[in-house]
């Protein structure tokens, strides 16, 4: 079952319509922790799975911990399973390949939806990181990623 926050995450990240957009600042030094990154490519395409912790910003943003997994599709964020935290959503995707004849996608993105509270706008924060293909050749990877994009929808 897809949660309401996941649907809103997709709507906010995929809609190109005349909605009122609002800006907010990305909190300083807000690093998201990726744990257990595992990704690989085969004839059928590339896949990934990992846990991510988006920390709480006291009095501003409630953090979450989520499990993300999916396959290469290039266009759509895939909702992650929320393990801890409420009301906010997380989704991930491998970005499109730069060259179809080359190796798999070179970056992935994680999107965090800060849900509306008492009429405030929804804010969508997105972070990008270089992909690491470690399936069958290296241990699970841990690293941080920092959001670089944010927009809000009233």
TrEMBL record:
Keywords: Signal
Domain of life of the source: Eukaryota
Signal sequence, renumbered to the chain: 1-16
The name this protein goes by in its record: Uncharacterized protein
Provenance organism: Zopfia rhizophila CBS 207.26
């Amino acid at each position: 079952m897809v949660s309401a926050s996941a649907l809103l995450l997709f709507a906010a990240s995929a809609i190109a319509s005349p909605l009122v957009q609002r800006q907010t600042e990305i909190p300083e030094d807000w690093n998201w922790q990726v744990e257990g990154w595992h990704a690989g490519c085969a004839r059928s395409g590339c896949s990934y799975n990992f846990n991510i912790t988006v920390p709480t910003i006291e009095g501003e943003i409630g953090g979450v911990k989520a499990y993300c997994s999916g396959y290469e599709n290039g266009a759509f964020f895939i909702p992650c399973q929320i393990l801890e935290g409420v009301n906010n959503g997380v989704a991930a995707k491998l970005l499109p390949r730069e060259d179809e004849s080359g190796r798999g996608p070179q970056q992935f993105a994680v999107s965090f939806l800060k849900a509306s509270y008492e009429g405030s706008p929804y804010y969508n924060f997105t972070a990008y990181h270089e992909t690491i293909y470690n399936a069958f050749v290296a241990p699970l990877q841990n690293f941080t990623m920092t959001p670089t994009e944010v927009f809000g929808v009233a």
